[in-house]
Structures are given as C-alpha cells and as structure tokens.
Amino acid sequence: MSQDRVEGQFGGQSWDGLIVFASTTSWDDTWLSEKHLASHLAKLAPVLWVDPPLSALTPLRKPAVRASAKGPRLRIIGDNLARLTPMSAPGVSRPVLHEIAEWATRRAIARAVRKLGGRVSALVVASLDDLLHACKADITVLYGTDDWIAGGELMGIRTSWLEKRERRQLGRADLVVCVSERLKERWSRYARRVVVIPNGCDTDAFAAVESVEAAPDVTLSPPIAGFIGHLSERIDRTVLERIAETGASLLLVGPRQRTFDVERMDALFARENVQWVGAQPFERLPAYMKHITVGLTPYTDSDFNRGSDPLKTLEYLSAGRPTVVSDLPSVRRIPANLIHVAEDSDAFVELTLLALASPPEEDLARQRIAYAVSQNWDARAREFLSVIAD
After folding, report:
1. Which of 26, 145, 215, 326 could be cross-linked to 299 through a Cys-Cys bond (beta carbons 3.0 to 4.6 Å apart)?
2. What residues contact 242, with CB distance under 8 A and at least 6 apart?
3. pTM of the prediction?
C-alpha cells in the first residue's frame, strides 16, 4: 500500500488533541519508560508514537525491530494509538548523516500529523534530536529519563557535543519533564520550566504474578535472588559475583550489553547456581518474577545512576517481593520499611542473604503492592496530562 493511501486507514478515529511522542527506542524493542508512559497516555488521549529512524541495516543489528521495516510507515497499533517509523540512510551516528536523519524524521512527523488531522496538543521528544519544531503543537515537551551527558560518557560520545545539544534542547522546550530531582536541579539552569514525574510501574502485569505459570526454563533451586533489567555498565557486577559466591541461586533476566566486562560476565553465567535467560518480552516477565524470592537493584554510584529512577525496583514491589537496592537518591522517595537499602557492596550481599533466609511476610507484601499501585503508569499518565495542560 502506498504512503498516499495510508490516510484511509484512520477513518472513524478522531485524532484531535493528539500527543506526538518521539521516542529513543522502537515500539518493537525493550519496554522502557517512554513506551509505558505513551501506552497509558493513549488510554486518555490520542497518541502518535514515533520510532527512531530505521535504516536497512538496523534489523541486522537489532533483530527485535525487524517487523518495523515491513508494512506502511504510518499505521494504527491500538485504540487511540498510531505508530510512525521514519526511514533513514545507514550511519546516522555520524554528524552530517545524523542531521539528515533528523530532517527526514521532522518531515515524516509533519506528514503523519497532516494525514491524521486534528490539533496537536503536545509534541514530546525524549532525546536530544532536533525534533521540537517538527510540527505545530500547543506545547513542546522534552522528556528525560536519564542524564544524557553522563550516559554519553559511558558510551564514549564526545561530551562537548552532547552539552551543546542538551543546552539547545532544554532552551527550546516549553516544558521539561524528568524522572528525578537530581535531573531537575541540573536542567533548571537552562530550561524555562522543569517538572519531576518519577517512573511508574505496570501493576496490572505484576499483580498477576501468583496466578501465572512460572517460566519453565528456570532450573535454579529456591530461594532465588533475581535481577530483571539490562546488564550493562551501570550495574555493580561485583555485587552479583559476591552473591553468587555465597552459593545462593541467582537469576538474571534481560539483555546484555555486548561490551560489558565480557570475561567476568561469562564466568558469572557459567556458575551452576547462576542462570541468565537473556532478553524476554515484557509480557513474559511476570512468569520469571514468580521464581524470584528477593529482587535486586545493584547499581554503581555514578553520575548517570544518581540521576536515574530504576523501573525494576517498583516492578519488584508491585509483585510484593522484598527488594535490596543500592543507596541512590531515587530510592529515598520509597517508604523505608518496604525496601532494604545497601550503602555498599558488603551491605548489599548481607541484606540479600538475610532477605533470602527470612520467611514471607504477607502484610508487608500487601504494603509493597499498595505502594506500587499508587505509583503506577496510569497515575503517571494523568499527572503528565495535567502538567502539559497547566
């Protein structure tokens, strides 16, 4: 079907008050804050999700996004929810080609908005890409879930280039929404208005943990300490190694950064009491969570992590699980009796072993779940809509 014929697919759907959400990850990729927020916003207002630009080579590097290259670039994927996949030439990480990809993405957004019709209530951009003027909108919003400068340092991206783009983006946006007070403090120097909306959690998914069938591929003996998330430079691998050295069962669920201390991680995975099941679809996570006795959020004390707000901690709590977390600013908003906060690696291992050995506390589990429900993505989406309408 040609691009000119796509408009007919949207008959009967009103797109007035549209929220355009330009993301850093494909809809087909890992569920991160952006996808959670956008999918819940779509329950309240029409949403156009914009994938990052896709080249012919992208599916070779990321098999999960292979489906993105097929079918029309603009299509409906749910009630009140449309998706746009802009195309680009390979090599968008290079400065000149990156600017061309930004131009192509702006053009694709403008065309998609015209096809959908209706007023755009908000243009939300979740990156430093030059997209804030892609279409006319009542308000432009920069949505930040991580410290871009600190993240760039981890990936070896030139800091001066990132700082220039960050200041430009912060200055252009009508509103900046971030997930932590640490980010607000830093970004308020350059932005007109900054509001903190922490990450939420999908409590509907994890509330069903006890009723779902446990993932059949897990072979570890209970009790099990579990980590669900991206195994990357931000994780304190020493904590995971030390927990494994005690003989405790350790389940690791999530993708692996290919450059993340390969030899040490391979040695960790090779232990008989450790099992890594790789990346899993979000819908399958409750089946793995069912095996977990104690949830782990072992983060290093870095600039990047100090500005973050880990999703996984709330997901453990939404399943009622005891949770051991590194002492970072984001955990201080969680009631102290619901989590075990570790000041260093020694304390983290000690608290994990203590939690594994402790009998379940049903009342405390109910309190954890109730707190997580108060922080769910439905509440975050309503707060987001309230802020952009203010």
Report:
1. 326
2. 345, 349
3. 0.91
Place of tokens 């340092």: 153
**Pair 217, 245: CB distance under 8 Å:** no
Residue 277 has pLDDT above 90, yes or no: yes
d(CA 186, CA 169): 14
CA dihedral 132, 176, 388, 312 (to 10 degrees): 110
Mean pLDDT (the chain, rounded)? 92
Domains of the chain by start residue, with CATH:
3-200+378-389 (3.40.50.2000), 203-374 (3.40.50.2000)
User: Is the pLDDT reported for residue 8 higher than 50?
Assistant: no
Establish how many alpha carbons lie within 13 A of residue 239's alpha carbon, considering only the half-sphere containing its beta carbon.
29
Q: What is the largest CA-CA distance in the chain?
A: 62
Looking up tokens 């993708």, which residue turns up?
A: 255
Map residue 326 onto helix, strand or coil: strand
pLDDT digits (tens, 9 = 90+) for 351-381: 999 999 999 999 999 999 999 999 999 999 9
Residue 15: phi and psi, rounded to 5, are -110, 15
Residue 56: pLDDT above 70? no
Pairing type for strands 81-84 and 74-78 reads antiparallel
Q: Is the pLDDT of residue 9 over 50?
A: no
Q: Cα separations (Å) of 118 from 21, 110, 115, 137, 386?
A: 16, 12, 9, 11, 20
CA angle 306, 308, 314 (to 5 degrees): 120
